[in-house]
Amino acid sequence: MTQRASASASPRLLLLAPPGAGKGTQGRRLAELFGVAHIATGDLLREHVAIATPVGREAKSYMDAGELVPDPLVLTLVLDRIGGEPPLDGFVLDGFPRTVAQAEAAMRWAVDSDRTFHAVVSLEVPTPELIRRLLERGRASGRADDNEVTIAERLRVYEVKTAPLLAFYARRGLLLEIDGSGDPDLVFSRISEALTRLGVSS
Ligand code: B4P
To answer: What's the pTM value of the predicted model, to 2 decimals?
Structure first.
């Protein structure tokens, strides 16, 4: 079953990749290229944690442990951001969905609001390189969940809860598998070329 939307001036893209694969890095660039919103659930959650909102207070313990924040909380955050009258036309969703329940809710939203997705970009990077990048970021930024123990748990959670979404989107004809290793500029050109082949270009 193919649920890809036809090419549009404001693409709706999802980024699906393990921690450290470059979702944030490439998500920001894609949003800039297409002039659409970059919505990163990790960033939204960290903003809530930083100012200790009720959402942030609930999310913090899950994030510190490398676990996923409960689906209802994440869904409310994302749907508030892309919903509205009218719903957002174009966006890059970075780090969402991360569970089958989130993917099903996102698909229902897309159909109901006539905003079906153009593509799901998956970034593939060998695990040792993921760990190296995250440890390096942890050293440079002090980000609380970029430590050895939490990284191992985030990678485990990704395999169990998020990796099954690759098949979910492949079945719907939406998945673009991209080699995420090498320089960020090179990865970005791989993604842009794959999107252009699909008819999604700026
Ligand atoms: P995220 O903020 O999404 O954390 P992440 O998976 O580590 O990805 P991030 O985008 O930060 O890193 P990236 O790969 O770009 O989530 C954090 C937590 O929030 C989750 O553990 C979870 O608790 C919660 N959460 C978020 N979304 C959720 C959801 N939908 N449901 C439930 N819970 C949710 O980059 C990593 C590093 O690699 C960077 O330093 C970058 O500079 C570097 N890098 C990138 N590309 C590179 C390249 N090509 N070469 C070398 N280095 C590169």
So the answer is: 0.93
